[in-house]
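User: Second chain of the day. Same drill as before.
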Amino acid sequence: MFGFRADGKKVKDLDPIQRMMPHIMNYRADAQNATSYDCPCEPIDEFIKKEYENGEKYNYMHILIAAIIRGTALNPRLNRFICNGRIYARNCIQISFLVKKVLSQDAADATIKLDFTGHESLPEIRDKINAVIQKNLTVETKNGTDTMARIFSLVPNFMIGTLVGLLKFADLHGLLPKAVLDLLPFHCTAFVTNLKSIKGPSIYHHVYNFGNTGMFFSMGKESLKPVVRNGEIVPGKMLPIQIVMDERFCDGFYFVNAFRQLTALLADPAQMKERLEELPQDTVVQHGFSKKKKA
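Assistant: Same format as last time:
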């Protein structure tokens, strides 16, 4: 309440125009911008093959999520969010994604949200993803998010809207405790959907008005496209990635430079094998006292 939240701290020293943006565009869906990137598969495939020969197993999801985490750690403004007209710096990097328990149209999904500091190496991120996926693969397994959704679904239909409304009100005014926020998948740095795993095309997925997700990444099935190599047009295997973002907490220049760095990470995944020891920090206000860290 009064601007304090369990999942972030208010950002100070904002440009006047940027401070106005959440009030001009009140809803996240009003403020979403979209872009696409055809990621060359060759360097990723080479990395996966080389690591496999050394006894290490990686997939595209590991590498994309690691690139998002590393890119956000290096560009901390990507980890901001907006609530009730204020801009906040998130306390940690949070990634949400869905896991299909069984490859069947009738099978349930498990919603996963993981916390990261930004220091993590690619192997650490892979192991954390693998562990939580393995834990949620069985049909009988219910995580905290699934349980909360189940409880909401048990009440009469006319009351669901009221309960969700109360949840939104509490979220808007910073009344939700961290334990509840940790269960809500729509409160995260980025939501990632892997349509490549079901051989589907990537899509431009909206960022939800509920919650504070700042970016949505969609990875689709790779395909051959004409590319220029050594002055010649040749077929190249490309991975489509669509990104939808809330434009209000970052300016376009910052977004472009941050995504340029992210594409460089995807072009050379090996650089993420080492931990990131030094993290650039955002400028925040904490407990009413100004605290300026290295930008």
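DSSP finds eight helices and twelve strands in the chain.

User: Great, on to the next one.
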